[in-house]
Amino acid sequence: MFKLLGSAIVIAAAASIGWLKSASFAARPKQLRLLNHALQRLETAIMYGYTPLAAAFAEISRQLPPPLRAVFADAAQAMDAADAVPLTAREAWQFSWERHRGNTALANEDLRILLELGYSLGISDRDDQRKHIRHAIKQLEQEEFVAREEYQRYGTMCRSLGVLSGLLAVILMY
Questions:
Q1: Is the dihedral of CA 130, 133, 139, 144 positive or negative?
Q2: Which CB contacts under 8 angstroms, 24+ apart, belong to 87-92?
Q3: Largest separation between any pair of C-alpha atoms in the chain
Q4: 11, 9, 8: which is closest to 163 by C-alpha?
Q5: What is the pLDDT of residue 82?
Q6: Residue 97 CA from chain centroid, whole number
Q7: H or E element at residue 27
Q8: Which sign does the torsion angle of CA 105, 140, 32, 129 carry?
Q9: How far is the C-alpha of 144 from the C-alpha of 2, rounded, in Å?
Q10: Among residues 11, 76, 100, 134, which is most buried (max CB within 10 A)?
Q11: Would you say 62 and 54 are in contact if contact means Cβ atoms under 8 Å apart?
């Protein structure tokens, strides 16, 4: 009885580890797609709304789900800090991404693209910022394509390996 219960717990634990790893592969393309939409909204706010960056970041943060919401909200708060020295757009963008890096499913290459975009935010005219935002969007679209392929390739494999490694552990214990 206890052996059967222990075996079921080991298999369930290993399977859940595989499902969690698979979920991280699934989260990256979704977050990249959301980031692309957010950057398109940022471009629209800059080009047609003449919206200051801090206000644009705050508005975009209200439209995003939790891991990405915090990034844009923190950037807006850092630029509008009344109790401290407000940061420039680049500093606020960098600070926010470095602070929330671990909460997202983004890869280092994705973060590099976003940090490079931060170097051009707020320091040039609207047309130049538009070019940089569109360039970042194109790069993130390529990364999203790669992330989807990785999920298709490794997502199912992680789930299967989780279950199979649990079964192997049970077999080796007996």
A1: negative
A2: 88/122, 88/123, 89/53, 89/118, 89/121, 89/122, 89/123, 90/118, 90/119, 90/121, 90/122, 90/123, 92/54, 92/57
A3: 72
A4: 11
A5: 61
A6: 10
A7: helix 2-47
A8: positive
A9: 46
A10: 76
A11: no
Q: Between helices 108-118 and 89-100, what is the axis angle to 10°?
A: 160
Dist CA 146 CA 141 (whole Å): 9
Tens digits of residue pLDDT in 108-150 = 999 999 999 999 888 888 889 999 999 999 999 999 999 999 9
Tokens of 94: 């960098």
The predicted-structure confidence for 60-110, as pLDDT tens digits, reads as follows 999 999 989 999 999 999 888 766 777 888 999 999 999 999 999 999 999
> 38-65 burial, b if ≥16 CB within 10 A, otherwise e?
bbebbbebbeeeebbbbebbbbbbeebe
Q: List, for residues 23-44, the tens digit of each pLDDT value.
A: 989 999 999 999 999 999 999 9
Rounded CA-CA distance 173/112 in Å is 45
The pTM for the full model equals 0.84
